[in-house]
Amino acid sequence: MVSLGDIRAAHDRIRAHIHRTPVFTSRAIDELLGANVAFKCESFQRGGSFKIRGALNAVLTLDDREAARGVATHSSGNHGAALAIAAGVRGIPAYIVVPANAPRVKRAAIEGYGGIVTECAANVPAREAALAEVVERTGAHFVPPYDDARIVAGQGTATVELMEQAPDLEQIWVPVGGGGLTAGAAVAAHGIDPRVKVIAAEPSRADDAFRSIANGRIEPMRNPATIADGLRTPLGQLNFDILRSHDVTVELASEAAIIAATRLMFERMKLVVEPSGAVPLAALLEASPSRRARRIGVIVSGGNVDLEALLEILKNPGGY
Amino acid sequence: MVSLGDIRAAHDRIRAHIHRTPVFTSRAIDELLGANVAFKCESFQRGGSFKIRGALNAVLTLDDREAARGVATHSSGNHGAALAIAAGVRGIPAYIVVPANAPRVKRAAIEGYGGIVTECAANVPAREAALAEVVERTGAHFVPPYDDARIVAGQGTATVELMEQAPDLEQIWVPVGGGGLTAGAAVAAHGIDPRVKVIAAEPSRADDAFRSIANGRIEPMRNPATIADGLRTPLGQLNFDILRSHDVTVELASEAAIIAATRLMFERMKLVVEPSGAVPLAALLEASPSRRARRIGVIVSGGNVDLEALLEILKNPGGY
Description:
The structure is a homodimer of 320-residue chains.
Chain A: H1 4-14, E1 23-24, H2 27-33, E2 36-41, H3 51-61, H4 64-68, E3 71-74, H5 78-90, E4 94-99, H6 104-112, E5 116-120, H7 124-138, E6 141-142, H8 149-165, E7 171-175, H9 180-192, E8 197-203, H10 208-215, H11 237-245, E9 249-253, H12 255-267, H13 275-286, E10 295-300, H14 307-315
Parallel strand pairs in A: 2-10, 3-4, 3-6, 4-5, 7-8, 7-10, 8-9
Antiparallel strand pairs in A: 1-2
Helix pairs in contact in A: 1-3, 1-8, 3-5, 3-8, 5-6, 8-9, 9-11, 12-13
């Protein structure tokens, strides 16, 4: 499927174009959890999230003829912006299909990075039809957002860096949506040190990965009503297979804990994170102490949050 | 007054107890300013601001007999928290006189770091009387917040680190309130490289340093009505003398620019900064391009901001 070698190769391919994001720690949070937690802050990554890693790996593995016609995807969020940046690095066009109800700032960000936006109605058939039309018309290469070996290999590079920056981790907690970041983390962590346990953190209100792992087959996402908007996507099949083969377990986080974690990172760590990026800390706060190791790594997936939305979230009193 | 040697000695004294805070850059802000700007983020410092540097230097220079009786100061903000942390490092008591109208979170932070709080009425005579009483009763050593050679030497260590982390800077922009950080920056920068220009950034609504430098004598602060609450303090005499002898100039920032800069750092850099920490960027945004060098360093003084207050500030539309 995907190997540590694929991740190392992806790292060599993308390294010059991405940030080696910093790892932060917090005495206050360590005391709260009774653990040492190293936060790998992909909020400081180019484009504001880890997504550039996979998108760039996919774009840079295309041969020149394929690449010349550009790349295309559908996204209302970080993947669209990341693919636009990645295409810019290679000097090729990026066609991004965006639902009409996507926040204006997200669309503006994609265009700011040079992406060519096509709007579609906000439903799956309309999105697929719009993407098919764009690909047909331009000959662009489709780069899926997460369920793709090149994407998984790219996202795995975040975990390789984290394990270099914070040696001797016992657990790595990663937010899970489509599963690209988590699958990459599992392959990277176990390839480097099989004793490291990878834990997927998921909102209780978007618990398809939890149900899928529990039942041994992909379970559908049902009306994901979580503020962690990056994690409303269903788990991909490839990623599910990788998670299972690496014994990844899933820990859930309530909406209250996600809000509290976002607020904690803001107040104590002075970090702007999107709610999805705070889900691992939220799950850690709610997990019984026996499920938390002493030396924990966390991947903070991104910092792209609409300011007004974040202000609404942070108005809620913190519970931790 | 204070020499680079004093700053190097302070650095050796405090290094093991402070963070070497990271330097961040932003493509978006570089494009906006047409310059390369390196932001030294003291928001990630212990206690959430640069203040620990000076406080720790003062605490660690006391001899054992002096130190045993503890240290005392008056502060409603970062210096009080910093002195409490510094005293904790040495295992001695810290007595902090806090005005009754200080935000609860600030008082809670001081107590959280082990500081012993005495409340006083919110005026200068009451504050001085309360401090005198505490010093008389306990025999504690008074550590002033900024107008003190040990404090200046400690604060100068931030600039030493910045110049190591971002070589070849032409200008260093520093927020100025009481002047300890700026005076330390001037001594450090000119000691290391006399060609580096240090620029003090000050709110237009708290422009006593601007007037003092212009008139060649300390001018009083008049009703400082700025959201940059850390910069409402008047410039100290020692610091004024250092600023003058190092040809430090002052650039002003409007309240609108301070808000816009706080918002820019939040949205583009994913950094939580207190408005005072955004004042250099605000002044850079308002300065004519001829006053901005190509390679600029900025000291972001801190990230301690009341959450609700920040939310109010960030509600304002950004103007840049």
